[in-house]
Amino acid sequence: MAARQTRTMFLDAWLSAQAGFPSAAAAPSPSARSIIQSWSDLRECLKLGSFEPHVRLLESLRNLLDSQSTLHVADPQAKILVSILGDEKIDLPDESYPLFLRLLYIWLRKSFRPSPAAIDSTVEVVCKVLSGRCDWGVHPFLFSEGVLILGAFCSGPGASDNSIGKCLDLLCRMLEEGYGVMRLVEGVMPNVLAGIGYALASSTTANACYGSILGVLFGVWDKEDGPCGSVQCGLMILHLVEWVTAGYINSNSFEKILMFSRNVFEGADKGYSPFSLVMGAGGLLRASKGVALSDMGTKVIMAVRAGAVDIIEDLAKYLNARFDGLGGFLHNSIDKLHLQCFALSLARCGSVTARGPFLLCLASALLNEVFPLRHLYDGVLGASSGSVISTVCTHLVKQHLDSVLFKEGGTITGVLCNLYGSADENSKKTVERMIWDCCQDIYSGHRKVGLALKGNNEELIENLERISESAFLMVVVFSLAVTNAKLNSKYPVDVQVEVSVQILIAFSCMEYFRRMRMAEYLDTIRAVIASVQDNMYASVSFVESMPSYTDLTKGSGTTYQWYTDEVQTARMLFYLRVVPTCIEQLPSDVFRKSVVPTMFLYMAHPNKKVARASHTLFSAFVSSDKESPNGERASLKDQLSFYYMERSLEDFPGVTPFEGLASGVAALVRHLPAGSPAVLYSIHGLADKASSLCLNNSNKESTMWKNLNEQEPCKKLLDLLLSLLPLVDIQVLPDLMKLLAQLVVQLPSDGQTMVLNDFQNNSSSNQNRKASTRRNGVLSWIARL
To answer: Taxonomically, which superkingdom (predicted)?
Structure first.
């Protein structure tokens, strides 16, 4: 397979797009008539030997450039442009020169086979125009357009070796004299880098000139008067090198590839900027992946690829030594740029041989640069009291959301998972710990920010959550990689359960950000729960990681209300759902200490989903079959059942969801011992509550009872008591029958009629003989009363 050299009409535009620069708003395309008129004006200028006023000339040139994407400049039109530029009698405004050069660049790139004579004459004129300038800081756009067209002459068709030599010499001189323009003026970088790329692609570039151009490409960034490095510049370098080296590979120019490698990857002593080197390495790796070559070509490619990977590894080692603690922050902005470029280089270069330092460095990049949530939370919390500073934070968060680095988060995560699979055990453990700790930091930070900004800056919270949601996806994908790697027979059980518990804790911290259904999430959850639920140590470890009752309710301010804390609630809902899966393994004292206070607290949560989960957890515990030798578990079930009924009925109807109450009552009736005082207390409590609700309804109009539906609380409790008839043991049954009869008798006549009709219908249609017999027993009690 040949290397992929992107076919692009304009290298400068392609580099801008690859770097993530926003596309310029498309101007309305000029009409055909206005384009014809513009060319006519230029011909008139040439004929008269002047152009007055200058505004008219500039308007004509800009009108043509507004249709750059569709404009075709033919040889006769290019001749007009060259003639105007070369006529010393015509007084041209300085602003017009970059426009002339851009039109000639369009001609050069779009012409299928331009005349060699026309190319050489154009080179003469352009070199003459540019050679007379040295104050590039005053004419930055002429500098950038000049570098661009000189480079294009070198790699385009038709130019003689003599013309190419002139262009290269002038281009090198301009770069050496004017590289500071790239620092002073925004927007010239794509043109300058594209001009360098065209020049490097030339088949006749002399060794001295080649090294000089590479020296500018990789070496100007750290100079005092040079341009400042950035992620966008790094990406343009990466794709520039990709484009150039793909051309070398496709033309079998292996000497050029070796010359490039010697000048760049063996140039550590030349003062090249690390960020440019690592991006250049990524570009070469991207261009050379998967190519099929001759034996000699393969050897060359393997050698230069190894050199490129060495460059990336050297930067990773340097950065790993610079971290502020394990996976901590880099406080130096240059180091942060290097870390960002390291991550992007690995993300875009394709598969590479894993090296030891890669995993730790890439994990740090993900946690601190791709998803810099801890840094953002600190900034927001420190600035939340000032509206101006808060506005700055909002801007920074939006800026990060639009960044290339954030958008590449998924790809970088995929690279991390691939590196994890081939890393040594110490590196794996280190990165796991970094990511699990980061999950807890995100939970803590987002919780504080949410409470601090609630009702004040919703836009900022929403944007932070967009980053957090992506971080959640990263955690899920990485956790699945860990699960696939470690939950197997290659690892001892204690390692498997430890990893499983850590993943569950991490998922609990990130639960608030789970906004979609993911197959990877479900696969990971199933695997780790299967590992935990049969292991007492793992189950206890997971349960004891739950925040304590005090932590849940105390908050950070005097106005804190635990049930309004959405981030905390989401985490606790995760625990409430997972704990039932390992309930059999939990000792009674652990359940009493770590679970019970939280379970009863969240039974009173206004969110029905959360409250139901608490009731489900209670049902799971009461239904568990495991028993302690001293009967402690049975005793705890009895104790909790009394308080459960008291707490549930106190908030019913209203907070207590009926479905949760019904499941809890059914569980304790089914699983507590025969004649249990807790069961008797439960059915008496239900009857008393139903009685009070029915009495409230009895004070209403009789039509209330005629229209009573299944959703009325009193009707629900009546149905619940009725459903317990086939479940209760023979010691409790007389009390339940009597209570049901008394409840029906105290209803007003319309209510009695309705309930008895339902009762009779259920008795006659019920296929369970035991249930039907017991219903008839209730009817006998009613008749007696």
So the answer is: Eukaryota
